[in-house]
Design a protein that fits this description.
about 375 residues, alpha/beta, Rossmann fold, six-stranded parallel beta sheet
C-alpha cells in the first residue's frame, strides 16, 4: 500500500469551515485516495476534522488571518509548519510520496532535504508569476516535481518550472447531493460572488455589474480571514492597527463596504454546509469578475454542478470551464458582464450539470495516482 503525506499547510483546517480553496481541494482528494487504497498522512492544523490514517499538526490553529500580512511579520508561520513536516519525514521511512500544497516554502524545504525526504509532487494553486525569482531558478533535482491545475496556468509559468511539471490535473469538488435546484429557464433572484474579498476577485466590479443589470447581489467570503460580519465591524471600530493596514481590509472599506446596503448588495461572510448550498442553488448566476488569471476556480465547478450558470471575465481557466452561451457567459467589460447577467435565463441547468460531470473527485484522484507512480519511477 502506498503511503502519501499530503501537506495542506498552516492556513486553514481541512475541511475549512467556509472559505478555503486549497483546503477544499485537499478535503475532496484525500477520501478518494483512501478509497483507492492509499494510506494518507495529513499535515495540517490542529482544528482539522477530515478522516485520515494519520494526522500531523505542527500548529494548533489556523493562521489564515495572517496570510496577507507583511512578510517580516508572518514568514515564520509557513517555516514553523515545514520544520515539523521535515522532522517527521526524517524520522520515518514508510512515506513513499509527499503531495505538497504549501506555496514556495513547501518545495524549497523538500528540495533542500535531498534524499532524506521522499519524492514530492506539488500542486500549483496560484499565479506562477508572483514568485518569478523562485520559479525561474528552482531545481527540484528530479525529486520535487509539479502538477498544474489548468493548461492556462502552466502556459504562463516560467520555462524552468514547466520543465519540472509532470502534467495537469483539473480541480474537482464533491458531487452535490441530488440534481434539483439551479437556474435555467427560471433563474433565481440574486447573483452570487463566492470568493475571498480582495481586489483580484473583483467584488467592486460585481457591485457595479449587478446594479447595472438590476439584479440583487450576495457576497460570500472572508475579509482578511474574518468570516463574521459582526466580528469585522467590532474589530474595525476598535481600530486594530494591524487589521486596518491589511490590503484586503482597505479594499473592503474603500471599494466594497460603501455599497453594502443589506438589500441590493448583501455581505453574508463565510458560508459553508447548508447555507452555502442554499445560496448556490437559489442563485441566478455565479458572478466571477476576476482581475487575475485564476488557475483553478473551484467555485465555478461547484456552481455548474448545481445547474447554476457562470458570468465572468475571460481570464485564466475560466474559458476552459465556461462555454460561452452554453454554461454561462464571458465578457471583458462591465457593460458586457451586465448584459450577460440579464441574459442568463436562457442557459439550461442540465447543460451546466453535464459540463461539471467532467471534473469528478475520482478522476482527480486517479490522475494523481498516475503522477505518483511516474514520480517514483523517475526519482528511482
Amino acid at each position: 500500500m502506498t503511503t502519501v503525506l499530503v501537506n495542506a499547510g498552516p492556513w486553514l483546517p481541512v475541511p475549512p469551515g467556509g472559505y478555503g480553496g486549497i483546503e477544499n481541494v485537499v478535503a475532496t482528494l484525500v477520501p478518494e485516495l483512501r478509497r483507492l487504497g492509499v494510506r494518507v498522512v495529513l499535515a495540517t492544523v490542529g482544528t482539522s476534522e477530515l478522516e485520515v490514517d494519520e494526522l500531523l499538526c505542527p500548529l494548533a490553529g489556523p493562521r489564515f488571518e495572517s496570510v496577507a500580512a507583511p512578510y517580516n511579520q508572518v514568514s515564520g508561520i509557513a517555516h514553523a509548519h515545514m520544520h515539523e513536516v521535515a522532522a517527521e519525514l526524517r524520522r520515518r521511512t514508510d512515506v513513499d510520496v509527499v503531495h505538497d500544497h504549501l506555496e514556495v516554502v513547501g518545495p524549497a524545504v523538500l528540495a533542500a532535504m535531498g534524499r532524506s525526504a521522499p519524492p514530492a509532487l506539488q500542486t500549483l494553486h496560484w499565479d506562477l508569476r508572483k514568485h518569478a525569482d523562485f520559479y525561474e531558478r528552482f531545481d527540484g533535482g528530479g525529486r520535487v516535481r509539479f502538477a498544474a491545475v489548468s493548461r492556462s496556468q502552466l502556459e504562463r509559468a516560467p520555462e524552468n518550472l514547466r520543465a519540472q511539471a509532470m502534467g495537469v490535473v483539473p480541480l474537482a469538488v464533491p458531487t452535490p447531493a441530488g440534481a434539483a435546484g439551479g437556474s435555467g429557464g427560471a433563474p433565481g433572484e440574486h447573483a452570487l460572488v463566492l470568493a475571498r474579498i480582495t481586489a483580484d476577485k473583483g467584488q467592486d466590479v460585481a457591485v457595479r455589474v449587478a446594479r447595472a443589470a438590476g439584479v440583487p447581489l450576495v457576497l460570500a467570503g472572508p475579509v482578511a480571514g474574518i468570516g463574521e460580519p459582526g466580528e469585522l465591524r467590532e474589530r474595525l471600530a476598535a481600530g486594530e492597527e494591524r487589521l486596518l493596514a491589511h490590503p484586503d481590509v482597505r479594499y473592503w472599506c474603500e471599494e466594497v463596504a460603501p455599497h453594502v446596503d443589506g438589500e441590493q448588495v448583501r455581505w453574508v461572510g463565510c458560508v459553508g454546509g447548508e447555507e452555502k448550498e442554499r445560496l448556490l442553488r437559489s442563485a441566478r448566476a455565479l458572478l466571477t469578475p476576476i482581475r487575475w488569471a485564476e488557475p483553478g476556480a473551484t467555485a465555478v465547478v461547484e456552481a455548474l454542478g448545481r445547474g447554476v450558470p457562470v458570468v465572468g471575465t475571460p481570464l485564466g481557466v475560466l474559458p476552459t470551464l465556461v462555454e460561452h452561451g452554453v454554461t454561462g457567459f464571458l465578457a471583458d467589460t462591465e457593460a458586457g458582464l451586465a448584459a450577460c447577467l440579464r441574459d442568463v435565463g436562457r442557459i439550461r441547468a442540465e447543460d451546466c450539470r453535464a459540463a461539471a460531470a467532467r471534473w469528478t473527485p475520482e478522476a482527480m484522484a486517479r490522475s494523481y495516482l498516475d503522477l505518483y507512480d511516474a514520480l517514483l519511477e523517475a526519482a528511482g
